[in-house]
Write a structure and sequence with these properties.
This protein is an alpha+beta fold. It is built from five helices and 15 strands.
């Protein structure tokens, strides 16, 4: 057969997860006659930045506008005798794989590029990939094995405001984690921002009223993973500073910030907190438990 012509190709791809599914592209018959799914992505054009290439390829293959993280893994595959463009070659493939994500409200994937290497795009259950039900290229399994969720730690301040046996609560909008649940007013602390100043700002944005921040009641934290509001697969750790706070007598809250993570605010009777019709986050029950313990008379 003699020496095969050498062919080296550099491609950029992305692992895009949403809960228990992964975004994949099915290769067209011009690439393989057998059903085979792979990560969305493809070859770099000459002089093209890999991050630009993977965003372009994802749009062509799935119709979705993706974002990719700053870090990547590189996989190398040497394929002597591979079939490329109608002939046998000594192929060497370098694959740059990024962590990618698309907005949670993105439309269903669809192939944009006509007569390309992709025949179909879809969200595929990860379990079906791992158990072999869906045939995938080795790159998919290698990338899933090495994938780690993006780590995100967030420091936030919250206000426990009780007035006439009612608790001031805000409801999380679809733009936030745990949408539909109720929580204490407050939010993230900007870099360099004093926590009490941050809390005053957040209460004004979420409730439309000024608050006077009192003593630090406790520090609460929460660690969980899943699809973030951005669409990214995240390992999230929230650290929450809980302050006692007061608002002016007669102040009636109203959501002041539009398109934020709060879509409702209300004074809720303490007896109704955590009821079936008004689910609350653990932050709320924790804060009330600490408050109750502090008010309990001490015994010798």
């Amino acid at each position: 057969m003699g020496t095969l012509p050498q062919r080296q190709r550099v491609g950029a791809y992305a692992v895009i997860l949403r809960d228990d599914r992964i975004l994949l592209s099915r290769l067209s018959e011009r690439v393989t006659r057998d059903e085979l799914w792979t990560l969305p992505g493809g070859g770099l054009d000459h002089g093209e930045d890999p991050r630009d290439a993977v965003v372009r390829e994802i749009h062509e293959e799935t119709g979705l506008d993706a974002m990719v993280g700053p870090e990547a893994r590189v996989y190398s595959a040497h394929l002597p005798g591979a079939w490329r463009d109608g002939r046998r070659v000594d192929a060497h493939a370098l694959r740059i794989v990024y962590d990618g994500w698309v907005p949670v409200d993105a439309p269903e994937p669809r192939v944009v590029e006509v007569d390309g290497s992709t025949a179909e795009a879809a969200w595929v259950p990860v379990a079906s990939v791992l158990d072999g039900t869906v045939p995938v290229a080795p790159l998919v399994l290698e990338s899933l094995r090495d994938h780690r969720p993006a780590r995100h730690q967030r420091l936030a301040a919250y206000a426990l405001v009780v007035r006439d046996e009612h608790l001031l609560l805000t409801r999380i909008s679809p733009r936030g984690f745990h949408s539909g649940s109720w929580t204490l007013p407050g939010g993230g602390i900007d870099h360099g921002e004093p926590p009490r100043v941050a809390l005053e700002r957040e209460v004004a944005e979420e409730c439309g009223i000024a608050c006077e921040v009192g003593d630090l009641l406790d520090v609460h934290d929460l660690h969980f993973g899943g699809t973030a509001p951005s669409g990214r697969d995240e390992d999230f750790h929230g650290v929450h500073l809980i302050f006692e706070a007061t608002v002016p007598d007669g102040a009636e809250p109203v959501v002041a910030e539009t398109d934020g993570t709060t879509d409702a605010v209300a004074w809720v009777p303490l007896a109704e907190v955590g009821s079936a019709g008004r689910p609350v986050l653990d932050l709320v029950t924790h804060a009330l438990a600490v408050r109750s313990a502090r008010q309990r008379p001490r015994t010798r």
